[in-house]
């Protein structure tokens, strides 16, 4: 799933290539991806892209005051084309193409989504805050207002595991499954640690890990072409999706805890005092 660093990089990529160009037309191939109908998506035709922004994990193209807002969900992606195909694409079937935006110079981009579970969401609104997911976002961790004191106020009294809290977009915007694993590894903190139990020292360390990890990922992705961002994210991860490999810090074996539709990875030596965390799914399999 694209998270804050990848969406930030996509925003920068589009800012350089799409700003100043008019939208020639928009082809909708997967009608279920379009979540709004007023104004209609056809109203973007003839309008000019004047800016590109990010709200958490949402991508926002300002098109002469209308906003094309995209959430790529788990398996969505943006593919830039210097020259768009002239032949129309038929909707349906196994085609992963959900939406195609043609610009006035012949370039443009596709929004694609792999797999059968569809979550890609596209909105055309007059104000990004009309999108429910944007309106409910928590503070952005790269904003100057996201201070250790602000994080302390967030975790105070929260009787929930810190891993889940970091992934909650209403609490902190932009962090997903991958970067929450990375942040907690840098902070040397168990993903199962209860948020309200964090000391002031814990909060300062966690804040430093959040901001540092995300900024490093943004810098690594800056200037990369859209098609290279997934590979950069994968090579930059230290523990996420690296089950069974050696921790780059201590050399211990990275372990995994599986859930119904996701999993987390961590280093026992760095994060849990050498103790493996309970994996209920594996426990059931062993019975």
UniProtKB/TrEMBL annotation:
Residue ranges annotated for the FPG-type domain, each copy included: 238-272
One Pfam family this sequence matches: Fapy_DNA_glyco
Gene Ontology terms: biological process: base-excision repair
Signal peptide feature range: none
InterPro entries, per the entry: FPG_cat (IPR012319), FPG_N (IPR035937), H2TH_FPG (IPR015886), Ribosomal_uS13-like_H2TH (IPR010979), Znf_DNA_glyclase/AP_lyase (IPR000214), Znf_FPG/IleRS (IPR010663)
Residue ranges constituting the Formamidopyrimidine-DNA glycosylase catalytic domain according to the UniProt record: 2-93
Similarity-based family: Belongs to the FPG family.
Protein name, as recorded: Formamidopyrimidine-DNA glycosylase
Natural source organism: Actinomadura viridis
